[in-house]
Amino acid sequence: MPQIFAEYSGSFALKSPKINPAMPTELDIFARRLREARRETGLTQARLAELAGLDRTYISHLERGVANPSLAKMVQLARIVGKSVADLLRG
Questions:
Q1: How far apart are CA 47 and CA 33, in angstroms?
Q2: 59 within 8 A of 73, measured Cβ to Cβ
Q3: What is the value of pTM for the model shown?
Q4: 34-57: per-residue pLDDT in tens?
């Protein structure tokens, strides 16, 4: 699948182009569900980042669907927000 560059905060990250913009990708779904779960638990991006040992900007990138997390990071973040990875991937 071809990759395109998406600019953010003065740096670049790879993001797959959407085949059908009306259909969210798994990354879009994860981004939305992570943000929802974080807010439900009352955590700020900064606090979630601190608990996960990550940078706050990385959490922001995840929640915007710009960064592509590893499975290990997905599991770690899901545990912190009290969800399973499957919960965070369900549309």
A1: 17
A2: no
A3: 0.76
A4: 999 999 999 999 999 999 999 999
